[in-house]
Amino acid sequence: MALATGLAGKAALITGAASGIGRAIALALASEGAAVAVADRQPAEIVVGEIRARGGRAHGITADVSDEHQVVRMVAEAAERLGVIDLYVNCAAGTWHEPVTGVTRQGIERTMATNLMASVFAMREVARHLIVAGRGGAILAVGSTATASAQPRETAYRASKAALKAHIEVAAVELAPFGIRVNLLTPGATDTPFVAGASATQRSRALREVPLRREAQPEELAPAALFLLSDRLAGYVTGSELVVDGGLRLRPIFGGSDEELRKLNLQGEAAS
């Protein structure tokens, strides 16, 4: 049964949509009756096929969002194929981690181009389209809990995501008079190709910091995205950050076990 999102009939452009969180959001939007332009550096035929097989409307667009010219073409192509753009989701991102003593201009520029400038330029193009159309709209960028915790080798990545949040907030202020809402969805540890390079030991160690003690599945981020994109559900929400991280941002400092935590909160029950 579809949620009462009011997203049916909307047209959405999603970057990084061939896999992971972007794919999950694309499928969720399509299930709500939205037409979707699935953009990715990799071919997106599989996702497009999934949506069409379920009776949805989808188009694939191949674009490297680190290239401004390709971003401009991507937005224009999405508008042409969909007829209009109502929603934009910036999900594309990349990591090229380097230690502080090994930081390179190439690494920083590549990270910033993919994680920050791609969103800035795409939002510029989408906002121009939305303003001319005069129909309002919603823009959503996917952030990272890297902004809440400093990790080794993440100088460029953390800076790019912190800057992305700042840009989202400025855009929310500037675009509000046009009825365009701009928000940030920040996932924690999520089982996507983005973390596929980490070893099982690294991932297991990282999950000790997550109160829910597991990674999210991409599909668990999609409802939050639908909420923020829906004027019906989040019509008064703009410039906000919705964190879906299993409690990771809390990063509790506790030397005990989960069983000891349970006992802390079972003592009262036992005493009664």
What is the topology, as strand order, of the major beta sheet? Answer: 3-2-1-4-5-6-7
Tally of individual helices: 10
SS-derived structural category: alpha/beta
Helix content: 40-55%
User: In percent terms, what proportion of residues is strand?
Assistant: 5-15%
User: Which overall shape is indicated by the principal axes computed on the Cα atoms?
Assistant: globular
Number of strands: 7
**SSE run:** EHEHEHEHEHEHHHEHH
Rg of Cα set: 20 Å
Can you tell me the residue ranges where pLDDT is under 50 for at least 5 consecutive residues? none
CATH homologous superfamily descriptor: NAD(P)-binding Rossmann-like Domain
CATH C-level name: Alpha Beta
Q: How many independent structural domains?
A: 1
CATH topology: Rossmann fold
Distance between the termini: 43 Å
Specify the CATH architecture. Answer: 3-Layer(aba) Sandwich
Please summarize the sheet with the most strands.
Answer: 7 strands, parallel
What's the overall average pLDDT, rounded?
90
What tags apply to this protein structure?
14% strand, 272 residues, alpha/beta, seven-stranded parallel beta sheet, Rossmann fold, 7 strands, single chain
What does this structure look like?
With 272 residues, the chain is α/β, with parallel strands linked by helices. It contains 10 helices and 7 strands. It has a single domain (11-271), classed as NAD(P)-binding Rossmann-like Domain (Rossmann fold). A 7-stranded parallel beta sheet has the order 3-2-1-4-5-6-7, with helices on both faces. Strand 4 (87-90), helix 4 and strand 5 form a beta-alpha-beta unit. 42% of the residues are buried. The model has no long low-confidence stretch (mean pLDDT 90).
